[in-house]
Automatic annotation (TrEMBL):
Protein name according to UniProt: HTH araC/xylS-type domain-containing protein
Gene3D superfamilies: Homeodomain-like (1.10.10.60), Jelly Rolls (2.60.120.10)
Species: Blautia hominis
Superkingdom to which the source organism belongs: Bacteria
PANTHER family (UniProt xref): ARAC-FAMILY TRANSCRIPTIONAL REGULATOR (PTHR43280), HTH-TYPE TRANSCRIPTIONAL REGULATOR EXSA (PTHR43280:SF2)
Keywords: DNA-binding, Transcription, Transcription regulation
Length: 288
């Protein structure tokens, strides 16, 4: 069997390096692959699913067994030979690399970690087989968004390749924490999701790093509502759920939602839903 994709414009970027995928192939290697090498900035990733054989790199010979992974970079002469009667089944990804911004400071070491390794061979420990199988499914089925998915899988393949020859080394770069300004929407949503019974405007303003007036303006900009309106929405939504799906008393519900009295809760509920909490429960229990 031989499956090949070599006429597709598949590009993705890692750090300041552009990866162009010129050949994606799957082959039962009944034939001998004679010694050959790749030019500048060209790399080939091989993964052997099954079968046995050898790879000859210069004067060195390596045995290949199922789950063998190897990388051959620029000017690394290598030949591949299957054992007669048990041919290798091989995935091959051929890449050509180009720096996108030669003068730009690198923000990620991944591209360097890949390009500086011109040859490596070993057993895969990162489930590359699953990635390659999914890659070929996407290329075959071409479902909605497959081009994005293929690029994502190829980026993942590069990371898996690096992790294999790094042997579990910890990352040098990490996500930066979001500032309060960058996370404002999430802070507001999380506050009303978890703390709506007792949340105050002052508490929310403190979490956002803003003053109370600024917080009120922000609420209007995002939701078109005041803080009290947003808090009331959350409380009333919870009240409707508790009335419909629990047997708790109305006074117990009022207490859980942070109302000072059942009368205060009942008045707020009637104003919001135009009916009493008792009537709301009866109607929704009868017609779930």
């Amino acid at each position: 069997m031989f499956i090949q994709y070599n006429n597709l414009d598949i590009n993705f970027t890692i750090g300041s390096t552009r990866f162009r995928t010129l050949n994606i192939a799957y082959e039962h290697l009944h034939r001998i692959i004679p010694s050959h090498s790749h030019g500048d900035n060209s790399y080939e990733i091989h993964y052997v699913v099954s079968g046995r054989g050898y790879i000859k790199v210069g004067e060195q010979t390596y045995e290949i067994t199922p789950n063998t992974l190897y990388l051959a970079g620029p000017h690394v002469a290598h030949a591949q030979i299957s054992v007669q009667g048990d041919p290798m089944v091989d995935y091959c990804i051929y890449l050509r690399l180009r720096r996108t911004s030669p003068g730009e400071k690198r923000t990620d070491d991944l591209d360097r970690l890949f390009t500086e390794k011109t040859f490596w061979i070993g057993q895969d420990n990162c489930q590359i087989k699953n990635t390659l199988e999914q890659l070929f499914r996407e290329l075959k089925e071409q479902k909605t968004g497959y081009t994005v998915y293929v690029e994502t899988l190829l980026r993942q393949l590069i990371v898996q390749m690096i992790r294999n020859y790094q042997g579990g080394q910890k990352a040098r770069h990490h996500f930066k924490p979001a500032t309060p300004a960058e996370a404002q929407d999430f802070i507001i949503e999380e506050s009303f999701l978890y703390d709506y019974p007792v949340l105050t405007l002052e508490q929310l303003a403190d979490r956002l790093g803003l003053g109370c007036r600024q917080t009120e303006r922000l609420m209007q900009d995002i939701y078109g509502k005041t803080f009290l309106q947003k808090k009331g929405d959350a409380r009333m939504s919870a009240a409707s759920i508790l009335l419909t799906y629990s047997d708790r008393s109305i006074s117990s519900i009022a207490e859980e939602l942070g109302y000072s009295s059942v009368e205060h809760f009942s008045a707020a509920f009637r104003k919001y839903y135009k009916k009493s909490a008792r009537q709301y429960r009866k109607e929704n229990r009868d017609h779930p």
